[in-house]
From TrEMBL:
Protein name: Calcyclin-binding protein
Keywords: Acetylation, Cytoplasm, Nucleus, Phosphoprotein, Ubl conjugation pathway
Superkingdom, taxonomy of origin: Eukaryota
Organism: Circaetus pectoralis (black-chested snake-eagle)
Subcellular location: Cytoplasm; Nucleus
Classification via CDD domains: p23_CacyBP
Role description: May be involved in calcium-dependent ubiquitination and subsequent proteasomal degradation of target proteins. Probably serves as a molecular bridge in ubiquitin E3 complexes. Participates in the ubiquitin-mediated degradation of beta-catenin (CTNNB1).
GO MF annotation terms: S100 protein binding; tubulin binding; ubiquitin protein ligase binding
One GO biological process term: heart development
Pfam families: CS (PF04969), SGS (PF05002), Siah-Interact_N (PF09032)
Domain SGS, first and last residues per copy: 143-220
Name of the gene this protein is made from: Cacybp
CS domain boundaries: 65-158
Length: 220
């Protein structure tokens, strides 16, 4: 799939940069990114055989759009995912289908303004009850209700999200605050556009100048 190919390309580039990087801090940031990408690739849904995918497409008819935007909230018993879709309340109820498993769900909205909409959540953070989960159709919105197996607070929606948060925290969690800042600046520099790079360079030069004049004792 397109997303899988893009992730593979990103991973190849990170590996390439790792072979060239000599600074430990930079290598740490790249290693974090490498682990994150490997996790995402591992958690991509398996590709369907071409015939099955084609058959599904032709049975749906029209153009299929993948939904990426959503909001979420939780109560003691439910994880609630809000998906905005204009006019969804006008569809027959059977056109809005959700399949639940203990750690995932798939949403399919058929023939809304000539398009089909899909959304897949794999690797939910904790198990859900398939029987207790459901969906509600509201004005311009589908609400997916995932019934928690245990009544506890979820810190995020998926396992991947949790792991990438933990890795990022570990990369910047250091007893030396200036080192944590350096790691963060390097990541911002690496991911930033030209404007961001100029801003960071300017700040760097200015802090060096002040330091050499003895205005501030900074060790960065």
């Amino acid at each position: 799939s397109f997303i899988f190919n893009q992730l593979q390309k990103d991973l190849e580039e990170v590996k390439e940069l790792l072979t060239k990087a000599t600074r430990k801090r930079l290598r740490d940031v790249l290693m974090t990114e490498k682990h994150k990408l490997e996790l995402e690739i591992k958690n991509q849904p398996p590709l369907k055989p071409k015939d099955a995918a084609e058959e599904e497409k032709s049975s749906l008819g029209g153009y299929t759009v993948k939904i990426n935007n959503y909001g979420w909230d939780q109560s003691d018993k439910f994880i609630k995912i809000y998906i905005s879709l204009n006019g969804v309340q006008k569809l027959p109820a059977e056109n809005v289908q959700v399949n639940f498993t203990e750690r995932s769900f798939d949403l399919l909205v058929k023939n809304l303004n000539g398009k089909n909409y899909t959304m897949t959540f794999n690797n939910l953070l904790k198990p859900i009850s398939v029987e207790g989960s459901s969906r509600k159709i509201k004005t311009d919105m589908v609400l997916v209700m995932c019934r928690k197996k245990r009544e506890e607070k979820w810190e995020c929606l998926t396992q991947v999200e949790k792991e990438s948060k933990e890795k990022e925290k570990a990369a910047y969690d250091t007893s030396d605050p200036s080192e944590g800042l350096m790691n963060l600046l390097k990541k911002m520099y690496a991911e930033g556009d030209d404007e961001m790079k100029r801003t960071i360079n300017k700040a760097w030069v200015e802090s060096r100048e002040k330091q050499s004049k003895g205005d501030i004792p900074m060790d960065i």
